[in-house]
Amino acid sequence: MGEVRLMKGNEALAEAAIRAGCDAYFGYPITPQSEVLEYLSREAPQRTGMVVLQAESEIASINMIYGAAGAGKRAMTTSSSPGISLMQEGLSYIAAAELPCLLANINRGGPGLGTIQPAQSDYFQSVKGGGHGDYKLIVLAPSSVQEMADFVRLGFDLADKYRNPVMILSDGAIGQMMEKVELFEQQPKGGTFPKPWATTGKTKDRQRNIITSLHIDPKEMENINLRLQEKYHAIEENEVRYEVMKIDDAEFILTAYGLAARICQKVVELAREKNYKVGLIRPITLFPFPKKLFAEIVPRIKGILDVELNAGQMVEDVKLSVEGKVRVEFYGRMGGIIPTPEEILEHFEKIFIKGE
Amino acid sequence: MAKVKGDIIVDIEKCKGCELCVVACPQGAIALSDNINKKGYHYMIKIKDNCTGCENCALVCPDAVITVYRKSGKKKEKIATISNVQNNMTMEVN
Amino acid sequence: MDEKDLKLNETEFLNEDICVAEYLVYKKPETLIDIDLHYCPGCGHGVVHRLLMEVIEEMNIVDKVIGVAPVGCSVFAYNYMDIDMQEAAHGRATAVATGIKRVLPDKLVFTYQGDGDLAAIGTAETIHACNRGENFLIVFINNAVYGMTSGQMAPTTLPGMVTTTTPFGRDTSITGFPLKISELVAQLPGVCYVTRTSVHTAGNVRRTKKAIQKAFEYQMQNKGTCLIEVLSNCPSNWKMTPLESNKFIEEEMIPFYPLGDIKVPKEEK
After folding, report:
1. Is residue A166 pLDDT above 90, yes or no?
2. Most CB within 10 Å of its CB: which of A59, A103, A225, C232?
């Protein structure tokens, strides 16, 4: 068993970055994720020689990530919603140049400057691209402090494997809450994936390496798009992750990710006490979305209630997955309000039991 | 002091006829040709055999089309590897 | 033979006894890839590209250098430079260079940026990289205009200068004043070397090359940020011939942006 500690989600994420062999962190303070930059500034340089730099903006951070990732290093940044918005241009370039890197969005309520309270309102931005052009991030949604740590290592590995940016989409509650976390062992710095494409100085034994996303020739640009789409397809085939709870005999499915899924676990318990056959599907990867699971379960169920801390975003992917073959309803709270299990159960009963 | 004698070789197909070399030449040894290259530019040519190999034309050339030679009393230290020089020579021979 | 005849017999002058390897004094560097440059006739970009490659070749640092290209006319700089390079988003070259240099501190990093890239959209990144004393070279091409987007006003456009977005001349009461970014960053303690050169005459080309050489040497000595501002022409967007554009540099640009060292390392003062 690895070392066990009581930690904040943000701290667990930072500690995991050190242990995952991250070479460089570039970040900018923003609530509710500033602990990451603080923790790393305090711990990382002396422990692993990791570069930790407070940038002048999120725009600078993400472009520093571009440079460091292009140089073949494990690079990472974290921010919260408004800061992540500022990074979208850089993310588009990173996805297009196929640079592996990790970022975490400790989602807070929006739009605009919004609130510093937790929300899940950046689902679309994370899953559908966010910046310009046809690209995808691999999106991991932790629902515990343990996963805040584990997904850092998983995220770096997926990033390296697919040469693709990976986002941990968390929220202010999981970032701030303290839980027991079992930490994995220190991994080799920089990971073990070979990166022959990195710009490290052209040696005599190879051609020059160029990191770019510019392709003026339409044919070439289309081919690159086709290759990217092929990669995203491979990711959809191979990397879908989810957790299910009591779905085998379920007539109704609750679905939620991250913080909302934690609440829904309790809802399932409360519902079962009332003899409602309710199960839970928690997508862990939001891209790739567990489409097949939803499609498979459709013939066995009467309805799906999608619960999110937003105005209804993932619910669109659920609807696309079931292709109209089953009733899909949504319940969400916004602005940093976290619904109680009772409140969700009441809504469930209203729709699916009382048929209102 | 031995007389300094120079010469240039021009990659005329890369020349864009900007004329910057013409005014940079202290000897007035170069001009634009009446002919045009494949790109449609009047390319630079020597019009006098009084080149001293001062390199000015090559220095101001934005397209790096000029290779310079200089024979003086003293041998100048070679500044670059020279194996590929022959390949870079593109002279139009009509 | 009169001059007309000479032009018709272009190969006559090839002195076969002189054009031999033994007497070679200048050829373009191997590191400058042997393809046509996309720049307009007479554009200074080609000269600066060549100088960078000459210095890198002569200093034998090809395996150490990583360049960062900007967005602007020189967006394709990496097509011509036979070294490892990264293409940055518009204005972000110094942030990208920071990322590279921080993880590969033993390598030599340079950015190549135009005035719009470095002094408008990328001002924050430029100033903060300089303020951190990032140990790399910024090559700043100032041609007082947005070249690639075809001639709009740049932060460095001279007062009264006509561009497509200042069709009646730059009115400083509306658009503000030209930003002297070199003088600005020279104030910052992290910056080690700031100089302004040009490439409109052979002498100035030589001085620019020397400055690039020095900057790489300072970088090897971990002295901090070096910025070389190169005044360059833009014949197409200035609507001038290359010769007229160089005259404009001499008569209009240099009086406003004086050439010479703006900051040198302390021990060299």
Report:
1. yes
2. C232
